[in-house]
Amino acid sequence: MKYTLSFLLFLSLSLTVFAQTPEKMSYQAILRASDNSLVADSNVSIKIIIHQNDPSGEIIFEENHAVSTNSNGLVSLEIGTGSSVLGSFNTIPWQQGSYFVETQADINGGTNYNVTGVSQLLSVPYALHAKTAESITGTITAVRANVIAFTDSRSIINSDINNTIACTRNATLTLSSNFSEMAIGDTINLEAHNGATLTVSAATGVSLNYTASGSAVFASEVGNVRFGLLRKSGENAYIISGQ
């Protein structure tokens, strides 16, 4: 049976830095089977890989975790505290480029990692780099993703970029051709709420998950939320996860 990782909002939900202990970053994801059923109350193995500059770029950090999902299929761990395979989390040069987290999972708790998901790390890790600054000038402004209500079908717009689209009524988001406002590597978080269905549709000349004019459907159940992540991978190409 095929399994998928459904990412919760940003991969990095919180950050903890202590003077005398290792730096670490909280991570949560939901494991679902291909029929959308939850992988609940199971012992699983998770491999965390951090790539620099590109989703398939140089691997600068890798570690393994043995964790358990809860009754909702949710797995929680702290990146930086696993069994080290390559590199050190507290020496990652966050100021030198963009970073992507690749997650691999074995839902049987072994080393047969056949579930994979990739997402870009956004603003949170750069708090790690801030502690190395010798001086700070000007005003420090907190940055967080905006939640955009989505109830009517429309094309993608500039304000969607790096924010969260919260769909509460059946609607379609169309990926327009030559949408240059969204840079390669930019992302949009997707949420379908409480029985609503969010459809993402690629216009003519645009590919979604390597399919020309492709589409993806996020159908939520009443009382639940369905999560996904959209990333621009090329001039007229997008990758979507969480289906």
What does this structure look like?
With 243 residues, the chain is an all-beta fold. It has 2 domains: 3-130, Immunoglobulin-like; 147-241, Jelly Rolls, CATH 2.60.120. It has 1 helix and 19 strands. The chain has one helix spanning 126-130, and strands at 3-16, 24-33, 43-52, 58-68, 74-79, 83-86, 99-106, 115-121, 147-150, 154-155, 164-167, 171-175, 187-193, 197-202, 207-208, 211-212, 215-219, 225-234, 237-241. The strands form 4 sheets. A 7-stranded mixed beta sheet has the order 9-11-13-18-19-15-16, with no helix packed on it. β7 and β8 (115-121) form a beta hairpin. The longest helix has 5 residues, at 126-130. It is globular. Mean pLDDT is 82; it is low at 6-22.
Low-confidence stretches: 6-22
Overall pLDDT score: 82
- Supply the CATH architecture of the largest domain: Sandwich
| Oligomeric grouping of the chains | single chain
CATH class of the largest domain: Mainly Beta
Structural class: mainly beta
How many DSSP H or I helices?
Answer: 1
Q: Helices and strands, in N-to-C order? A: EEEEEEEEHEEEEEEEEEEE
Q: Describe the main β-sheet briefly.
A: 7 strands, mixed
Number of domains: 2
